[in-house]
Design a protein that fits this description.
- This protein is α/β, with parallel strands linked by helices.
- The protein folds into 2 domains: about 10-150, Sandwich (Immunoglobulin-like); about 155-430, Alpha/Beta hydrolase fold, catalytic domain (Rossmann fold, 3-Layer(aba) Sandwich).
- About 20% of the residues lie in helices and about 30% in strands.
- It has helices at about 95, 195-200, 225-235, 250-265, 290-295, 345-360, 410-430; strands at about 10-15, 20-25, 25-30, 35-40, 45-55, 60-70, 75, 100, 120-130, 140-150, 155-160, 165-170, 180-185, 205-210, 240-250, 270-275, 300, 310, 335-340, 365-370, 390-395, 400-405.
- β5 (about 45-55) and β6 form a beta hairpin.
- The longest helix is centred in the last third of the chain and has 23 residues, at about 410-430.
- It is globular, with a radius of gyration of 23 Å.
C-alpha cells in the first residue's frame, strides 16, 4: 500500500459553546483501543456520545452511551459509566462493539469488511441530553472521524490463483522471513480477508483461503489435497519460514484444520487454532462430507423469530469413530476457542469429547481450551459488533435463512477481546523462532 498512515489524536471544537471532543487515535488498527473524551461542558451536564458507521453494503450502524459530565465539565468514555444507550457501565470500547443497525434497517445484517485496503470509518459525536433516536435531526456539538484499519502500513496484499488454489496472501512489512498462517472461515463460503490482513499487521504471513462458493451453480467441494496445496504455497513463499506455519479456522474451517493436523502427511502445521468448531464429520479425501455442509438429518429447528438453530445437529456427540476426526493423531499444539452460548455448533460438547479422546491417546498435553460464558458462535477480532443472528446462505441447497449464532453483547465482546490476545500469544509462542522476529506494526 502506498498510503502512509500514522497514529494520531484529534480534537474537534464545536462551533457553538466551545465543547471539545478528543478521539485518540484517529487512525489505528481495528484491535487497537480508542480513547474518547469530551470537555468544556457545564458541570453535571447530560450528554450522549454517539458512533455512526456507513457500511460497504450501504447500511448505517450506530452505538451510543448516556453520560453525565463531572464537576469540571468532562466526560471520559474509558473511565466514566454509561447510564443507558446500546451499552451501560464503564465500557471504553462500547461505542464500537455495541454498534447495531439503525432502526428501520434490513433484517439479518452482519458487519464485515470486504475491502481491507480501505479503512472502516466511524463518526463519533457529542449530543446534548440523553438521546435514543433522532441523531440525524439536529447537529451535534462536536464530531470526530476515526479510521479503523485491518491492514497496517507496509502490509502487502497478493492475489493467489495457482495450482487450483484461490486465496489472498498478506505479507508483513520488512524482509522477513515470517511465520505463516493458513486462515479459513466457515460454511458461509467466499473469500474473507480481514482476519488474515490483521494477522499480517501483527507479523504473520497469512493467507485467507477460499474453499466454498455459494455464488456458483454448484458448491466447491474440495478434498484434503486442496488444503495441503494451500499450506504448501505458504511454505514455499520466500518470505515465510517453511517449518513455522500454523492453521487458524472458524466453524467449518475448524473441521478442516483438525482434519489436516490429524491426517495429512504433506501439511504438518506447527500449531492449530480452532474457533467455534468441532471434530465431527472430518474432511475426506474426496471432499467436504455432505453432513458437514448440510447437517440435514431432521435436528435443525427454528425459534419463535424464525431464526435457524443448528447446534443440535451433532448432538449427542457420536461414539462412532468413523464420524469423528481421530484427534489422538494430532502432534502439534491445539487451541480451542468456544462460547458457551453457541447456537450454531455444539462446540463445548465437542471440546469435551476432543479432550477425552486426546487423553486416551496420550496427547492431551497439546490441548488448550478456552470457553467463554455468554459468548456465541461468531468470535471475531476485538470490538467487532456482536451479531446474535444474521442472514446466511446454506451452501448445498442455496436456501437463504437467518441463522442464530448466539451470545450476549457484553459477554461476547469480552470474549472477542480476550481470545484475540490469547490467539496472538499462542501463535507467537509456537510459530516465532525468536519473540522479536516480527514486531507488531503500528499505525
Amino acid at each position: 500500500m502506498s498510503t502512509t498512515r500514522s497514529t494520531t489524536s484529534s480534537t474537534t471544537t464545536s462551533s457553538s459553546g466551545g465543547v471539545l471532543l478528543s478521539v485518540q487515535p484517529t487512525r489505528g488498527l481495528v484491535d487497537e483501543k480508542l480513547r474518547v473524551a469530551a470537555g468544556h461542558l457545564p458541570p453535571a451536564c447530560p450528554v450522549t456520545l454517539h458512533c455512526l458507521h456507513h457500511s460497504e453494503d450501504q447500511d448505517y450502524w450506530e452505538a451510543f452511551g448516556h453520560y453525565l459530565s463531572d464537576h469540571s465539565g468532562a466526560v471520559d468514555v474509558s473511565e466514566d459509566e454509561s447510564f443507558g444507550g446500546t451499552y451501560t457501565g464503564k465500557e471504553g470500547m462500547g461505542l464500537l462493539w455495541s454498534m447495531r443497525p439503525v432502526p428501520g434497517s434490513r433484517r439479518g445484517l452482519r458487519l464485515r469488511k470486504m475491502r481491507v485496503d480501505t479503512p472502516m470509518t466511524v463518526l463519533i459525536s457529542v449530543f446534548r441530553g440523553h438521546l435514543t433516536e433522532g441523531f440525524g435531526e439536529g447537529p451535534p456539538v462536536a464530531s470526530v472521524v476515526a479510521e479503523r484499519w485491518y491492514m497496517a502500513p507496509g502490509v502487502k496484499r497478493i492475489d493467489v490463483q495457482q495450482r487450483g488454489v484461490i486465496g489472498t496472501f498478506f505479507i508483513p512489512p520488512g524482509p522477513g522471513p515470517f511465520p505463516g498462517v493458513l486462515d479459513m472461515w466457515g460454511g458461509g463460503g467466499g473469500l474473507v480477508e480481514y482476519r488474515a490482513a490483521l494477522l499480517a499487521s501483527h507479523g504473520f504471513a497469512a493467507m485467507a483461503l477460499k474453499y466454498l462458493d455459494h455464488s456458483s451453480d454448484s458448491p466447491s467441494n474440495f478434498g484434503i489435497g486442496y488444503f495441503e496445496t494451500a499450506f504448501q504455497i505458504i511454505q514455499e513463499h520466500p518470505q515465510v519460514i517453511s517449518d513455522r506455519v500454523g492453521i487458524l479456522g472458524l466453524s467449518l474451517g475448524t473441521s478442516v484444520a483438525i482434519t489436516v493436523a490429524a491426517y495429512s502427511k504433506i501439511a504438518r502445521p506447527r500449531c492449530c487454532v480452532c474457533v467455534s468448531g468441532s471434530h465431527i464429520y472430518p474432511i475426506s479425501t474426496h471432499g467436504v462430507m455432505e453432513k458437514a455442509m448440510s447437517r440435514n438429518d431432521g435436528k435443525a429447528w427454528k425459534d419463535e423469530e424464525n431464526n435457524m438453530i443448528w447446534r443440535n445437529m451433532i448432538l449427542p456427540i457420536t461414539t462412532d469413530p468413523a464420524l469423528k476426526v481421530d484427534v489422538g493423531r494430532i502432534k502439534c499444539p491445539l487451541l480451542l476457542v468456544n462460547g458457551d452460548d453457541d447456537q450454531n455448533w455444539a462446540t463445548v460438547e465437542s471440546a469435551e469429547d476432543i479432550a477425552n479422546m486426546m487423553s486416551v491417546a496420550g496427547n492431551r498435553h497439546l490441548l488448550t481450551t478456552l470457553t467463554y460464558p455468554g459468548a456465541g458462535h461468531l468470535i471475531e477480532p476485538p470490538f467487532t459488533p456482536h451479531i446474535r443472528a444474521s442472514n446466511f446462505i446454506i451452501v448445498h441447497s442455496k436456501e437463504k435463512v437467518v441463522m442464530l449464532w448466539g451470545g450476549e453483547p457484553k459477554a461476547h465482546a469480552a470474549a472477542q477481546e480476550d481470545s484475540w490476545r490469547r490467539i496472538l500469544t499462542f501463535l507467537k509462542e509456537y510459530l516465532y523462532i525468536q519473540p522479536t522476529l516480527a514486531p507488531e506494526a503500528k499505525l
